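Collaborator request, handled under Task 6.
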Amino acid sequence: MKKLLIVLFTLVTSAAFCDNITFHADMMKGNTKNKNKPTTLIGHAYIKTDTMEISADQISMSGDDFRFITAEGNISGKNTESKMDFSCEKMRYDRQTKIVRLEDSVTLKDLENEIEAKAQIIDYNQNTEISILQIDVNLKQKDNTCTSAYAIYRKNTKMLEMSGNPKIVQGTDTFRAQEITLNLDTQEITLDGRVSGTVTESEKKNQNEESQAQNAAAPETPAESNPPEGEIPAEPEQPEEKEIKSDE
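Structure tokens returned to the collaborator:
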């Protein structure tokens, strides 16, 4: 039977980072007493700092006071401060600059604003709450589906800036331009350069307008008049009977 080694450590780093690192894995290579030498966690690797949680097949820590954290394989994680979840195949996190690079089939979710973004590369800055998305960008929010080759998402202002054949689809409406800016809060769109689009009225709206037009065109039915007081109303005329003969 294969021996399974479970490693669990908590490290207190220097004042340069002012946070702790907690981690565990099936196996560890390295020396945690020397925080300047690489340490690798293998198999069900997990690491937690004061603001970040990461799970992966393999996680390595390197640099002064384990400044750099890299991970590979089935990565999932979250920023516990800004409520941003992510998944990918490769990542590199700089604990000093608070910048994380996510690569290969990246999904980034802003849970507070109900936004899901996908791309091949996403650089996320924890300090500025700005994400830079590159290659096969696809962002979804409410009725919006936004695609482009390059995009900048500013979480604090809820602004999305797109370039590289950008397109926004809102329901049945489509907008294209060289550059597109979308306010994800107000849904206001700014198009710049070679602007084009298609706007389709909804079927329900058209039906309501047709119904209102028909009601306006219909003649009013005169109100039934009552006979003056004391006057006997006249009997309604009986329809004239016509004899229908059939040929024998």
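The cover message to the collaborator said: "The radius of gyration is 34 Å. Residues 1-17, 241-248 have pLDDT under 50 and may be disordered. Please let us know whether this matches your experimental observations."
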